[in-house]
Design a protein that fits this description.
The structure is a homodimer of 418-residue chains. By secondary structure, chain A is of the alpha+beta class. Chain A has two domains: 107 residues, Fumarylacetoacetase, N-terminal domain (SH3 type barrels, Roll), CATH 2.30.30.230; 287 residues, Fumarylacetoacetase-like, C-terminal domain (Fumarylacetoacetate hydrolase, domain 2), CATH 3.90.850.10. In chain A, 18% of the residues lie in helices and 26% in strands. The first copy, chain A, contains ten helices and 27 strands. In chain A, the strands form seven sheets. In chain A, strands 6, 7, 8, 13, 14, 16, 17 and 22 form an eight-stranded mixed sheet that branches. In chain A, strands 9, 20, 21, 25, 26 and 27 form a six-stranded mixed sheet that branches. In chain A, a hairpin with a 6-residue loop joins strand 20 and strand 21. In chain A, helix 6 crosses helix 9. Chain A starts with 24 loop residues before the first strand and ends in a 9-residue tail after the last strand. The interface between A and B is large, with 64 and 64 residues.
Chain lengths: 418, 418
C-alpha cells in the first residue's frame, strides 16, 4: 500500500503521523464547544459532528458523532467503521468535490483540547511479552523458574480498574501505599519510592459478546488500538500481590493515547506470531497473522531537562495477540462490552535497550539507567515526563499513534488533608 | 430499636424480611411496564416512580425513581437517602394520612419481575475472612504457611468483572475453561469439573471519590449491602491464578440479591471488629464499629430434590470491614464511582458448618458433603439451585436481604456452536 494523497498538504508530508491512510479517532474540544468526535488528518482534526450536521457523512445509526466518546460508533459495528473510512477517504482525498465544505469542518490540532476518546467499560491487563515475563520472573524467582508453568499455554491476564484510565496530557500523582521492604519488621504507609511505567498497547473492544468467541471472531470485535502506559508502584505491588494479583500498585493511573488507530489502518502491517514453543489449544490458535509491525519508543524528559529515548521495541515481539487475549477472556462465558480495553502487558524486546519498564531497564534498581543529560534513573522521578510513541512504517507513509504523555507530580505531603 | 408498625399488615408479621424498618431498594417490572425503582414493604413493592409522579415523594434531584437503577438516587447523596427513608416511614407508617394514595402505588411482590438493582461501575472482590484465607491457604500451602504474610496488614483484594454480575434468578451456565491437573502432561479445554459458590456480602458504593479516603469517609460513601454469590471454577482458577490472580475462574457469573439493604437499616446491628492480631496502620484503623451482626445461610437444592442448608455463618466473623476495604481501595489514588461493588470475599466462620464455599466444606473434594436427601457434593452439580440468605434479628423484627438464588445449567456441548 502506498500513501493515499489528500488535498490537505500537511497530511502528505513525509513523516506525518496522520496521513489519509490513518484516520485515527479522538475526542476534542476547541473554542469553548462541547467535546465531540474528531478524526486526525495531517495537522488538523475533522470535526465529525460538524461533518455529520452538514450532511457530508450520514451513517447507519446517525447521529453518531456529537457525543464525547466513540462508543456509539463502535456499537454501530464493523460495516459502519468501514463505511466511515471509505467516506472520509472520498471527502479528504485529492480532487474531492466537497473540499470547500469539508474545509469548513477542519480544526487545527494546535489549540484543540483532547479528551478520553471512549468510555472505558472494563480494563483488563495482560502479560503477553515473553521477555517481560522472563525478566520479571528472573528478578523474583531466578532464571530457572522465571516463566510460570501456565505462561506458554494461555495469555495470563487480570482485571484492572477502568476508573483509573486517563487520557494523554493528564499529570499523574505519585501515590502513597502500604509497603514493606524484605528487611522491615512491619509494613508502613508512605509515598511509593519505586514508581514505574509500562509500555503497552491497548486494544479497544468495539462489539459486545455473550459467551465464548473464537480468535477470528475476537479479531473482528476489535475497533482499534491506543498507546497505553500502565503506571505501576512496584513497592506497593511487591507487598500486596500474593496471592490475588496486583491491586493498588496498578490503581493510580493508566495513561492512554488520545488517538485510536483503527484496525483497518493497521491491516497492511499484519505479521505472524513468533514460533510457538508449546502447541496452543485449538481455542487459542490463530486463523491468520494477528500481530502488527508497530515500532514503539519510550522517551523520558526530566523536569527542565532534555529528552532521552530509553526504549525502542516493537509490538511484533509479543507472544499473544489481542485477538487471542480477547478469545481467552470470553472462554468461561464472560460478557464483553463496547469500550472494554485490553492492555497487552509490558512490551519488552529481547535486548536490554528494548525493555518496556524501568524495573527491567534498571534491573530492579540495581543498574540505574543513564540519561542523555548525565542523570540516572532506577524508577521515575518527580517532574519526569514520559512519552510513549508508536508508528507503522509503510511505503512512503507512516501510521502514527499520536501523543501518550504524562508528567509525574510529587506525592502529596498528607493525602488525607482536606 | 423495635418494630416500626405499618398500616400494611404483612409488613408487621413475625419473620417478615421487609418490615418498615428495612425498606430495601430494588428494580422491578410488572404488567408490561418498564423496569423502575421499587422499595419492598411486607409482601408488596412500593412503586417509587408512581409515588414520585403522584407527588407523594419529592426529593432533591427529582425525578429520581423512573430509571431502571438506583444509581441516580445513590449519586444524590446521603442526605437524600435519609430523607427518602424518613418520608417512606411517614407514608407507610401506622395512621398515615396518605394511605389510600400510597396503596395505589403498591404492587404485589408475587408476579413482579426483579432486575439488576443498580448499574455496576466496577466490581472488586476481597479476601477478608480469616478462616477462609486460612482454609484455602492450608489446602494449597499447608497450615504453617496458610496465611500470606500481608494478610493481617491489609485487606487483600482484586478487581473482578462488572459485566458478569447478574441479579438473583438468572441461571448460571457451567463454564468451559483451560484446566490442568497436577498429573496431566498438558492442559486441556473442557467444562469445569469443580464449579463452586462463594457466600459473600457486597457493599455498594453510593458516592464517588478522587483520592484517598479515611475509613470514616468510606463508611459514609456506602449506600447499602446485597447478598453476593461469586461463582468460582476452582479447576480453571488453580491453573491460571499464578502470578496475577483469578481471572476466567471468576468470570462466568456473580449473582447478587435483588434487594439492596440500605446502610441505615443496618445501623442497629453494628458490631465491633474481632481482636486485631497485628496492629493496623492508621489509615486502616476504625473510628467505631464497622461490622454488622448478619446471620447468613446457604441452601442447596438438587434438581427435583429437597433443600439442605449447607452453611450457617455470620458477617461479624470477618476481619476487614467494607469501610476498611474501600479506604484501602482508594489508598493509591484510585477513583471510586457511584455503583462500585465491593465483595467481602467468602465468609467462613470458625467451624466446618459455617464455611462459605464447597471447596472448604468438602475440603477440596476429599470429604464430600452429605445432603439431607442422601446425595453428596464436592462441588455443585448441574441442576442444583443455590440460595443465599441473610437476616439481622432485632427485637420483634428482622431485616431480611431477600432472595439471592441461581440454578446451575449444564455446560454446553460445544461452546463455539453458532
Amino acid at each position: 500500500m502506498a500513501l493515499m494523497h489528500s488535498w490537505l498538504e500537511s497530511a502528505n508530508a513525509p513523516g506525518c503521523p496522520f496521513p489519509l491512510n490513518n484516520l485515527p479517532c479522538g475526542v476534542f474540544s476547541h473554542g469553548g464547544a462541547a467535546p465531540r468526535c474528531g478524526v486526525a488528518i495531517g495537522d488538523h482534526i475533522v470535526d465529525m459532528a460538524a461533518l455529520e450536521a452538514a450532511g457530508l457523512i450520514v451513517l447507519d445509526g446517525a447521529p453518531l458523532f456529537g457525543a464525547p466518546s466513540w462508543n456509539a460508533v463502535m456499537a454501530a459495528g464493523p460495516a459502519v467503521w468501514r463505511a466511515m473510512r471509505g467516506r472520509l477517504a472520498d471527502l479528504l482525498g485529492e480532487g474531492a468535490e466537497a473540499r470547500a465544505a469539508v474545509e469548513a469542518c477542519l480544526v487545527p490540532q494546535d489549540g484543540a483540547v483532547m479528551h478520553m476518546p471512549f468510555r472505558v467499560a472494563g480494563f483488563t491487563d495482560f502479560y503477553a511479552s515473553r521477555q517481560h515475563a522472563f525478566n520479571v520472573g528472573t528478578m523474583f524467582r531466578g532464571p530457572e523458574n522465571a516463566l510460570p508453568p501456565n505462561w506458554l499455554h494461555l495469555p495470563i491476564g487480570y482485571n484492572g480498574r477502568a476508573s483509573s484510565v486517563a487520557v494523554s496530557g493528564r499529570d499523574v500523582r505519585r501515590p502513597w501505599g502500604q509497603v514493606k521492604g524484605p528487611d522491615d519488621a512491619a509494613p508502613r504507609f508512605g509515598p511509593s519510592a519505586r514508581f514505574d511505567i509500562e509500555l503497552e498497547l491497548g486494544a479497544i473492544v468495539g462489539q459486545p459478546s455473550d459467551g465464548p468467541v473464537t480468535v477470528a471472531e475476537a479479531d473482528a470485535m476489535i475497533f482499534g488500538y491506543v498507546l497505553l502506559n500502565d503506571w505501576s508502584a512496584r513497592d506497593i505491588q511487591a507487598w500486596e500481590y500474593q496471592p490475588l494479583g496486583p491491586f493498588q500498585g496498578k490503581a493510580t493511573a493508566t495513561t492512554i493515547g488520545a488517538w485510536i488507530v483503527m484496525k483497518d489502518a493497521l491491516e497492511p502491517f499484519r505479521v505472524a506470531a513468533p514460533a510457538r514453543e508449546k502447541p496452543l489449544l485449538p481455542y487459542l490458535t490463530e486463523p491468520g497473522p494477528m500481530f502488527y509491525d508497530i515500532a514503539l519508543d519510550v522517551a523520558l524528559t526530566p523536569d527542565g531537562g532534555t529528552e532521552t529515548v530509553i526504549s525502542r521495541t516493537n509490538y511484533r515481539s509479543m507472544y499473544y495477540s489481542a485477538a487471542q487475549q480477547l478469545a481467552h477472556h470470553t472462554s468461561a462465558g464472560c460478557r464483553m462490552e463496547v469500550g472494554d480495553l485490553l492492555g497487552t502487558g509490558t512490551i519488552s524486546g529481547a535486548e536490554p535497550g528494548s525493555y518496556g519498564s524501568l524495573l527491567e531497564m534498571s534491573w530492579g534498581g540495581k543498574e540505574p539507567l543513564k540519561l542523555g543529560d548525565g542523570g540516572t534513573r532506577s524508577f521515575v522521578a518527580d517532574g519526569d515526563t514520559l512519552d510513549l510513541r508508536g508508528r507503522c512504517i509503510g511505503e512512503g507513509y507512516e501510521i502514527g499513534f499520536g501523543e501518550c504523555r504524562a508528567r509525574v507530580l510529587p506525592a502529596l505531603a498528607d493525602p488525607y488533608a482536606r
